[in-house]
Amino acid sequence: MIEPHAPAPPGTAPPRGGCARLPVRPATGRFLVLAGVFVCAACGLVYELELVALASYLIGDSVTQASVVLSVMVFAMGIGSLFAKRLRPLAAAGFGAVEAVLALVGGCSALALYAVFAWTGDWGGMWANGPRCLLVAFSLTIGLLIGAEVPLLMELIQRIRRQDAGGAVADLFAADYVGALVGGLAFPFLLLPLLGQLTATLITGAVNAVAGGALVLGLFRGDLTRRARWLLVIANVTVLGVLAAAAVLVDDFERAARHAVYGRDVRVALQTDVQEVVITGGTNGRPLDLFLDGRLRVSGRDERRYHEALVHPAMSGEHRRVLILGGGSGLAAREVLRYPGVHRVDVVEADAGVVRLARRDPPLSKLNRHAYDDHRVHVMTGDAFRRLRAAAPATYDVVISDLPDPGITASTKLYSQEFYGLARRALTPRGRLAVHAGPVSSRPRLFWTVDTTLRAAGLRTAPYCVRGRESGFAPGPDRTAGPTRAPHDWGFILARRGERPVLRLGAGERVPRLGTLTQEGLVADAWVAEGTRVGGLGVSTLMHPRY
């Protein structure tokens, strides 16, 4: 057994390689260090997941955002480990300082990113690089600080009791990985649903500060000078004070940020099991706007134009049984129910909270003409892909795909060849499928990829669009910064088995009186869409998404 070194003179750090002066037995000290590793690792992973979740929510395209955040963070961890080598002679003070800074930066990261998003209007336009650079800066900083932890902890655990490097590394990594597991599971299943993203991150920062400060000041205070101890105490108290103040004010902050994003006319703001739902307007003559996860999905200014174009071309022909995928607002069902020949409408919506609002919110239920009160409408909550797999062959005369744009990662599988193959199976021999395929003029490759994928699934297609939209209703993967950046059209594709579908209104049954859609306008806009055709595009599949 290696004998301990002579105690260092008062006010100085012990020599490197010596054993620390501990207030507890070495075995207890070793356990406390590993417990600290466990807690700090859990906090570090929460910071990573918080950045990924917030970036995906604010920017869109979760695969890209996760790749950017995690790759930058892992790279920074390696750089942080290299820099931490210089701090090893002052491992206790260095670790205490690293944890205080990490708690402050990680705990406040969600607040800072959301504030930039809310008060600069968007991640696009003149601010396109600023907020994204801020996201990378947070990922880089947090990664540097996390990477600095392990070399310093390695030094501290060796000061308790010298052992071979392999055994010390194995112990540290075991505690680190188990802590990461707990943090990774706690974030989606505990912290996020119970506390929300902002409060959860602030509390994680506080736990991080307490764990790091307690480990150094409680166990390794003999390694610190009197001045270093006081500086570390002041730093941790300051960090905890900032985090506590932010936690107290977080509700006011969220309210102010929500008003900055959506305007002052917010009537409903709730977090369902699936997404954030916000409704503005709908009273005193103001048009109703419905936002899902920050994206404008229903605008009272032009929703009628959109839903007429989506539904009515597909209703030309037999339409006794209709399936609507998405469309929880009830507005697509409203248009379908205008046909007396409809006997049954099945609505598949992933978020039961949206359906509840469409039933109970007076302005929204008025807008959908109380569609969910009609006995012909049946709601099925769940994933559209899974529901199509469970549908019996040749069940529906019409399938209407009223889903978010394929550029949003969560929607990619719902625009795949496999998905359209299931839709084809669910259609009767002369059934029609109508697909909302994103804007034509601003994202033609995305639109024509949908067309290519539908044809690969064995369907014949008739692409068309509707121009003259007034708002950013149903945007793509990026949240729009206002009407100036909103696409100027909606793109749709009508598909069927066998022969190519014909774009027409009212074959076999009188068309209900429409507000904006005419046969002449439908044909003219279809020619406009055809003029944007992009050839040579690949088919989007589950294993090779193209959007």
From TrEMBL:
Keyword Membrane annotated: yes
Gene3D superfamilies: Vaccinia Virus protein VP39
Function: Catalyzes the irreversible transfer of a propylamine group from the amino donor S-adenosylmethioninamine (decarboxy-AdoMet) to putrescine (1,4-diaminobutane) to yield spermidine.
Subunit field text: Homodimer or homotetramer.
Binding locations of S-methyl-5'-thioadenosine: 275, 349, 383-384
Keyword list, A-Z: Cell membrane, Membrane, Polyamine biosynthesis, Spermidine biosynthesis, Transferase, Transmembrane, Transmembrane helix
Taxon lineage: Bacteria, Bacillati, Actinomycetota, Actinomycetes, Kitasatosporales
Signal sequence range: none
Substrates-to-products reaction catalysed: S-adenosyl 3-(methylsulfanyl)propylamine + putrescine = S-methyl-5'-thioadenosine + spermidine + H(+)
Gene source species: Streptomyces regalis
Pfam families: Spermine_synth
Annotated protein name in UniProt: Polyamine aminopropyltransferase
Family the UniProt entry places it in: Belongs to the spermidine/spermine synthase family.
Enzyme Commission number: 2.5.1.16
Stored PANTHER family: THERMOSPERMINE SYNTHASE ACAULIS5
Residues given in the record as spermidine binding sites: 307
Localization per record: Cell membrane
Enzyme class, spelled out: transferase
